[in-house]
Amino acid sequence: MRCLRCPVAYHTGEMCVAAGSEMLTPTTTICTNHFSPKKGYSHHSHVNVSWCFVCSKGGQLLCCESCPAAFHPDCLNIAMPDGSWFCNDCRAGKKPKYRDIIWVKLGNYRWWPAEIHHPRNIPTNIQHLRHEIGEFPVFFFGSKDYFWTHQGRVFPYMEGDRGSRFQKTGIGKVFKNALLEAETRFKEIKMEREAKETQENNRKPPPYKYIKINKPCGRVQVYTADVSEIPKCNCKPTDEKPCGFESECLNRMLMYECHPQVCPNAERCCNQDFTKRHYPETKIIKTAGKGWGLVALRDIKKGEFVNEYIGELIDEEECRSRIKYYQENDITHFYMLTIDKVPSLV
Protein backbone atom coordinates (compact mmCIF):
# COMPACT_ATOMS: atom_id res chain seq x y z
CA MET A 1 0.00 0.00 0.00
CA ARG A 2 1.68 3.20 -1.22
CA CYS A 3 1.16 6.89 -0.50
CA LEU A 4 0.05 8.85 -3.54
CA ARG A 5 2.11 11.92 -2.55
CA CYS A 6 5.38 10.55 -1.18
CA PRO A 7 7.51 7.34 -1.03
CA VAL A 8 5.86 6.06 2.19
CA ALA A 9 4.49 2.50 1.90
CA TYR A 10 2.75 0.10 4.30
CA HIS A 11 1.74 -3.53 4.27
CA THR A 12 -1.91 -3.91 3.25
CA GLY A 13 -4.42 -4.23 6.08
CA GLU A 14 -4.55 -2.27 9.33
CA MET A 15 -1.63 -3.78 11.27
CA CYS A 16 0.99 -1.42 9.84
CA VAL A 17 -0.85 1.55 8.33
CA ALA A 18 -0.65 4.78 10.34
CA ALA A 19 -3.87 5.94 11.99
CA GLY A 20 -5.24 8.97 10.15
CA SER A 21 -4.12 7.87 6.68
CA GLU A 22 -6.76 8.47 4.02
CA MET A 23 -7.51 5.27 2.13
CA LEU A 24 -8.12 5.91 -1.58
CA THR A 25 -8.04 2.33 -2.87
CA PRO A 26 -6.96 -1.00 -1.33
CA THR A 27 -3.41 -0.27 -2.53
CA THR A 28 -3.15 3.55 -2.41
CA THR A 29 -3.36 6.01 0.44
CA ILE A 30 -2.41 9.52 1.52
CA CYS A 31 -0.24 9.12 4.60
CA THR A 32 -0.25 11.21 7.77
CA ASN A 33 2.93 13.05 6.77
CA HIS A 34 0.61 15.31 4.78
CA PHE A 35 -1.31 16.57 7.82
CA SER A 36 -1.65 20.35 7.50
CA PRO A 37 -2.71 22.26 10.65
CA LYS A 38 -5.46 24.81 10.05
CA LYS A 39 -5.10 28.33 11.40
CA GLY A 40 -7.54 29.09 14.17
CA TYR A 41 -7.98 25.43 15.10
CA SER A 42 -6.44 25.19 18.57
CA HIS A 43 -6.65 21.38 18.59
CA HIS A 44 -4.44 21.32 15.47
CA SER A 45 -1.53 22.87 17.34
CA HIS A 46 1.36 20.70 18.49
CA VAL A 47 1.94 20.28 22.24
CA ASN A 48 4.78 18.78 24.28
CA VAL A 49 4.75 17.27 27.76
CA SER A 50 6.32 19.20 30.63
CA TRP A 51 8.47 16.35 31.91
CA CYS A 52 11.35 14.22 30.61
CA PHE A 53 10.38 10.87 29.08
CA VAL A 54 13.47 9.30 30.69
CA CYS A 55 13.55 10.58 34.28
CA SER A 56 9.98 12.03 34.54
CA LYS A 57 11.32 15.33 35.95
CA GLY A 58 10.79 18.85 34.63
CA GLY A 59 13.29 21.58 33.86
CA GLN A 60 14.95 22.66 30.62
CA LEU A 61 13.66 20.15 28.06
CA LEU A 62 14.48 19.24 24.49
CA CYS A 63 11.12 18.91 22.72
CA CYS A 64 10.31 16.85 19.65
CA GLU A 65 8.63 18.92 16.94
CA SER A 66 6.51 16.05 15.63
CA CYS A 67 5.10 14.41 18.77
CA PRO A 68 4.69 15.40 22.47
CA ALA A 69 7.96 13.74 23.56
CA ALA A 70 10.44 15.79 25.64
CA PHE A 71 13.81 14.95 27.17
CA HIS A 72 16.64 16.42 29.17
CA PRO A 73 19.64 16.58 26.83
CA ASP A 74 21.71 15.02 29.63
CA CYS A 75 19.32 12.05 29.79
CA LEU A 76 20.04 11.41 26.10
CA ASN A 77 23.77 12.12 26.51
CA ILE A 78 23.62 14.84 23.86
CA ALA A 79 24.14 18.62 23.78
CA MET A 80 21.18 20.95 23.27
CA PRO A 81 20.90 21.11 19.43
CA ASP A 82 20.28 24.25 17.41
CA GLY A 83 17.12 24.49 15.32
CA SER A 84 14.52 21.76 14.85
CA TRP A 85 14.84 18.43 16.61
CA PHE A 86 12.91 15.15 16.33
CA CYS A 87 12.94 12.17 18.71
CA ASN A 88 14.21 8.73 17.67
CA ASP A 89 10.70 7.31 17.18
CA CYS A 90 9.69 10.13 14.84
CA ARG A 91 12.96 9.94 12.90
CA ALA A 92 12.33 6.20 12.47
CA GLY A 93 8.86 6.91 11.07
CA LYS A 94 6.96 5.41 14.00
CA LYS A 95 3.28 6.44 13.91
CA PRO A 96 0.20 5.84 16.08
CA LYS A 97 -1.87 2.89 14.84
CA TYR A 98 -5.48 1.83 15.22
CA ARG A 99 -6.25 0.12 18.54
CA ASP A 100 -3.23 1.74 20.22
CA ILE A 101 -3.79 2.87 23.80
CA ILE A 102 -2.47 6.43 24.12
CA TRP A 103 -2.40 9.59 26.21
CA VAL A 104 -4.19 12.54 24.61
CA LYS A 105 -4.04 16.28 25.32
CA LEU A 106 -7.28 18.10 24.51
CA GLY A 107 -7.74 21.80 25.34
CA ASN A 108 -7.08 22.64 28.99
CA TYR A 109 -7.86 19.12 30.17
CA ARG A 110 -5.14 16.96 31.69
CA TRP A 111 -3.46 14.24 29.65
CA TRP A 112 -6.15 11.59 29.33
CA PRO A 113 -5.98 7.87 28.41
CA ALA A 114 -7.78 6.87 25.22
CA GLU A 115 -7.87 4.28 22.44
CA ILE A 116 -7.47 5.04 18.73
CA HIS A 117 -10.51 3.73 16.88
CA HIS A 118 -10.91 3.09 13.18
CA PRO A 119 -13.32 5.64 11.63
CA ARG A 120 -15.69 2.87 10.50
CA ASN A 121 -16.10 1.69 14.11
CA ILE A 122 -17.29 4.99 15.62
CA PRO A 123 -20.79 6.55 15.80
CA THR A 124 -22.06 8.15 12.59
CA ASN A 125 -22.23 11.65 14.09
CA ILE A 126 -18.54 11.42 15.07
CA GLN A 127 -17.63 10.22 11.57
CA HIS A 128 -19.23 13.36 10.13
CA LEU A 129 -17.27 15.76 12.34
CA ARG A 130 -14.83 17.85 10.32
CA HIS A 131 -11.35 16.37 10.24
CA GLU A 132 -8.25 16.50 8.05
CA ILE A 133 -5.81 13.94 6.62
CA GLY A 134 -3.63 12.84 9.54
CA GLU A 135 -6.39 13.09 12.16
CA PHE A 136 -7.90 9.99 13.75
CA PRO A 137 -10.77 9.39 16.22
CA VAL A 138 -9.98 8.56 19.83
CA PHE A 139 -12.28 7.09 22.47
CA PHE A 140 -11.67 8.57 25.93
CA PHE A 141 -11.80 6.09 28.77
CA GLY A 142 -13.93 7.08 31.73
CA SER A 143 -15.90 9.86 29.99
CA LYS A 144 -16.82 7.67 26.94
CA ASP A 145 -16.36 10.68 24.63
CA TYR A 146 -14.92 10.75 21.10
CA PHE A 147 -12.76 13.34 19.40
CA TRP A 148 -10.52 13.70 16.33
CA THR A 149 -6.86 14.40 17.04
CA HIS A 150 -3.40 13.90 15.49
CA GLN A 151 0.14 12.69 16.24
CA GLY A 152 1.24 16.04 17.68
CA ARG A 153 -1.10 15.57 20.67
CA VAL A 154 -0.71 11.89 21.58
CA PHE A 155 1.96 9.58 22.97
CA PRO A 156 1.90 5.83 23.79
CA TYR A 157 0.38 4.48 26.98
CA MET A 158 2.85 2.21 28.77
CA GLU A 159 2.02 -0.73 30.99
CA GLY A 160 1.79 0.47 34.58
CA ASP A 161 0.98 4.12 33.77
CA ARG A 162 -1.09 5.64 36.56
CA GLY A 163 -1.17 9.31 35.63
CA SER A 164 0.70 10.48 38.74
CA ARG A 165 3.45 12.19 36.77
CA PHE A 166 0.87 14.01 34.64
CA GLN A 167 -1.07 15.60 37.50
CA LYS A 168 0.23 16.59 40.92
CA THR A 169 -3.17 17.24 42.48
CA GLY A 170 -5.77 14.63 43.45
CA ILE A 171 -7.62 12.77 40.74
CA GLY A 172 -11.38 12.72 40.29
CA LYS A 173 -13.61 9.67 40.06
CA VAL A 174 -13.96 9.86 36.26
CA PHE A 175 -10.21 10.04 35.73
CA LYS A 176 -9.64 7.22 38.20
CA ASN A 177 -12.09 5.05 36.26
CA ALA A 178 -10.37 6.07 33.03
CA LEU A 179 -7.04 4.79 34.36
CA LEU A 180 -8.57 1.46 35.37
CA GLU A 181 -10.33 1.06 32.01
CA ALA A 182 -7.16 1.95 30.10
CA GLU A 183 -5.12 -0.57 32.08
CA THR A 184 -7.70 -3.32 31.50
CA ARG A 185 -8.01 -2.57 27.78
CA PHE A 186 -4.22 -2.37 27.36
CA LYS A 187 -3.79 -5.84 28.88
CA GLU A 188 -6.64 -7.20 26.78
CA ILE A 189 -5.12 -5.97 23.50
CA LYS A 190 -1.67 -7.14 24.58
CA MET A 191 -2.99 -10.66 25.27
CA GLU A 192 -4.78 -10.71 21.89
CA ARG A 193 -1.60 -9.71 20.05
CA GLU A 194 0.53 -12.22 21.95
CA ALA A 195 -1.98 -15.01 21.24
CA LYS A 196 -2.03 -14.09 17.55
CA GLU A 197 1.77 -13.95 17.46
CA THR A 198 1.99 -17.39 19.09
CA GLN A 199 -0.50 -18.77 16.58
CA GLU A 200 1.50 -17.27 13.70
CA ASN A 201 4.77 -18.68 15.06
CA ASN A 202 3.24 -22.16 15.27
CA ARG A 203 2.14 -22.09 11.66
CA LYS A 204 4.15 -23.88 9.01
CA PRO A 205 5.38 -22.03 5.91
CA PRO A 206 3.45 -22.57 2.65
CA PRO A 207 4.64 -25.48 0.48
CA TYR A 208 7.83 -24.84 -1.46
CA LYS A 209 10.24 -26.92 -3.52
CA TYR A 210 13.67 -27.38 -1.99
CA ILE A 211 16.50 -27.28 -4.55
CA LYS A 212 20.24 -27.69 -4.05
CA ILE A 213 21.57 -26.15 -7.26
CA ASN A 214 20.59 -23.19 -9.43
CA LYS A 215 17.96 -23.95 -12.05
CA PRO A 216 18.56 -22.33 -15.47
CA CYS A 217 15.40 -21.15 -17.24
CA GLY A 218 14.79 -20.41 -20.90
CA ARG A 219 17.90 -19.51 -22.87
CA VAL A 220 20.19 -19.13 -19.87
CA GLN A 221 23.28 -21.32 -20.04
CA VAL A 222 25.37 -22.52 -17.12
CA TYR A 223 29.10 -22.29 -17.75
CA THR A 224 31.39 -24.91 -16.23
CA ALA A 225 34.83 -23.69 -15.19
CA ASP A 226 37.92 -25.16 -16.82
CA VAL A 227 39.77 -27.07 -14.07
CA SER A 228 43.13 -26.10 -15.58
CA GLU A 229 42.31 -22.41 -15.00
CA ILE A 230 41.27 -22.78 -11.37
CA PRO A 231 43.89 -21.33 -8.97
CA LYS A 232 45.74 -23.71 -6.69
CA CYS A 233 46.57 -22.72 -3.13
CA ASN A 234 49.87 -23.40 -1.34
CA CYS A 235 48.43 -24.97 1.82
CA LYS A 236 49.94 -28.22 3.05
CA PRO A 237 48.04 -31.41 3.96
CA THR A 238 50.09 -31.55 7.16
CA ASP A 239 48.51 -28.31 8.45
CA GLU A 240 46.10 -28.71 11.38
CA LYS A 241 43.21 -27.16 9.40
CA PRO A 242 44.40 -26.78 5.82
CA CYS A 243 42.74 -23.86 4.00
CA GLY A 244 40.86 -23.11 7.23
CA PHE A 245 39.22 -19.87 8.39
CA GLU A 246 42.39 -18.64 10.15
CA SER A 247 44.87 -20.04 7.61
CA GLU A 248 46.86 -18.12 5.00
CA CYS A 249 45.16 -19.90 2.12
CA LEU A 250 45.58 -17.78 -1.03
CA ASN A 251 42.21 -18.82 -2.41
CA ARG A 252 40.45 -17.88 0.82
CA MET A 253 42.19 -14.47 0.92
CA LEU A 254 41.11 -13.86 -2.69
CA MET A 255 37.57 -15.00 -1.74
CA TYR A 256 37.73 -18.13 -3.93
CA GLU A 257 36.75 -21.63 -2.91
CA CYS A 258 39.25 -24.40 -3.41
CA HIS A 259 38.26 -26.96 -6.04
CA PRO A 260 38.28 -30.59 -4.82
CA GLN A 261 40.14 -31.68 -7.96
CA VAL A 262 42.81 -28.97 -7.63
CA CYS A 263 43.45 -28.36 -3.94
CA PRO A 264 46.46 -30.36 -2.63
CA ASN A 265 44.55 -31.06 0.58
CA ALA A 266 41.72 -32.96 -1.13
CA GLU A 267 39.06 -34.00 1.42
CA ARG A 268 40.89 -32.28 4.31
CA CYS A 269 40.44 -28.86 2.66
CA CYS A 270 38.42 -26.49 4.87
CA ASN A 271 37.66 -24.04 2.07
CA GLN A 272 34.90 -25.93 0.27
CA ASP A 273 31.80 -24.71 2.10
CA PHE A 274 29.80 -24.20 -1.09
CA THR A 275 30.77 -27.61 -2.50
CA LYS A 276 30.11 -29.47 0.75
CA ARG A 277 27.16 -27.23 1.78
CA HIS A 278 28.57 -26.49 5.23
CA TYR A 279 25.74 -24.21 6.31
CA PRO A 280 25.19 -23.27 9.98
CA GLU A 281 22.11 -24.92 11.45
CA THR A 282 19.04 -22.72 10.89
CA LYS A 283 15.34 -22.59 11.66
CA ILE A 284 12.41 -21.16 9.67
CA ILE A 285 10.43 -18.57 11.67
CA LYS A 286 7.46 -16.26 11.10
CA THR A 287 8.58 -12.65 11.57
CA ALA A 288 6.38 -9.72 12.63
CA GLY A 289 5.17 -7.99 9.48
CA LYS A 290 7.97 -9.38 7.29
CA GLY A 291 6.75 -12.86 6.42
CA TRP A 292 8.81 -16.02 6.77
CA GLY A 293 12.51 -15.82 7.57
CA LEU A 294 15.53 -17.89 8.49
CA VAL A 295 17.50 -17.56 11.74
CA ALA A 296 20.77 -19.22 12.75
CA LEU A 297 20.75 -21.44 15.84
CA ARG A 298 24.31 -20.49 16.79
CA ASP A 299 26.55 -17.44 16.70
CA ILE A 300 28.26 -16.80 13.36
CA LYS A 301 31.77 -15.35 13.31
CA LYS A 302 32.60 -12.28 11.25
CA GLY A 303 33.63 -13.37 7.75
CA GLU A 304 32.30 -16.92 8.23
CA PHE A 305 30.37 -18.60 5.41
CA VAL A 306 26.63 -18.46 6.04
CA ASN A 307 24.59 -19.68 3.09
CA GLU A 308 24.26 -19.77 -0.67
CA TYR A 309 21.59 -18.03 -2.74
CA ILE A 310 19.97 -20.66 -4.93
CA GLY A 311 17.10 -20.14 -7.33
CA GLU A 312 16.11 -19.86 -10.96
CA LEU A 313 18.63 -18.36 -13.37
CA ILE A 314 16.79 -16.08 -15.81
CA ASP A 315 17.89 -13.62 -18.48
CA GLU A 316 17.06 -9.91 -18.62
CA GLU A 317 14.03 -10.40 -20.86
CA GLU A 318 12.47 -12.92 -18.49
CA CYS A 319 13.36 -10.67 -15.51
CA ARG A 320 11.47 -7.70 -16.99
CA SER A 321 8.52 -9.92 -17.89
CA ARG A 322 8.23 -11.26 -14.35
CA ILE A 323 8.54 -7.85 -12.71
CA LYS A 324 5.74 -6.55 -14.95
CA TYR A 325 3.56 -9.53 -14.02
CA TYR A 326 4.27 -9.07 -10.30
CA GLN A 327 3.35 -5.36 -10.45
CA GLU A 328 0.12 -6.03 -12.35
CA ASN A 329 -0.92 -8.72 -9.85
CA ASP A 330 0.25 -6.90 -6.69
CA ILE A 331 2.86 -9.56 -5.86
CA THR A 332 5.51 -8.15 -3.55
CA HIS A 333 7.24 -11.19 -2.02
CA PHE A 334 10.04 -11.88 -4.48
CA TYR A 335 13.75 -11.13 -4.69
CA MET A 336 15.85 -10.48 -7.79
CA LEU A 337 19.64 -10.76 -7.55
CA THR A 338 21.92 -9.93 -10.49
CA ILE A 339 24.87 -12.35 -10.43
CA ASP A 340 26.65 -11.06 -13.56
CA LYS A 341 25.92 -9.05 -16.69
CA VAL A 342 23.35 -11.46 -18.10
CA PRO A 343 21.46 -13.85 -15.80
CA SER A 344 19.48 -12.91 -12.71
CA LEU A 345 18.74 -15.17 -9.74
CA VAL A 346 15.13 -15.34 -8.52
UniProtKB/TrEMBL annotation:
The AWS domain, residue ranges: 228-278
Residue ranges of every copy of the SET domain listed in the record: 280-346
Keywords: Chromatin regulator, Chromosome, Metal-binding, Methyltransferase, Nucleus, Phosphoprotein, Repeat, S-adenosyl-L-methionine, Transferase, Zinc, Zinc-finger
Keyword Metal-binding listed: yes
Top-level taxon: Eukaryota
PROSITE patterns: AWS, PWWP, SET, ZF_PHD_1, ZF_PHD_2
Subcellular location: Chromosome; Nucleus
Domain PHD-type, chain residue ranges per copy: 49-93
GO annotation (BP), single: methylation
GO molecular function, one term: zinc ion binding
GO cellular component: chromosome; nucleus
Stretches assigned to the PWWP domain: 98-160
Pfam families named among the record's database cross-references: AWS, PHD, PHDvar_NSD, PWWP, SET
Protein name: Nuclear receptor binding SET domain protein 2
Provenance organism: Hucho hucho (huchen)
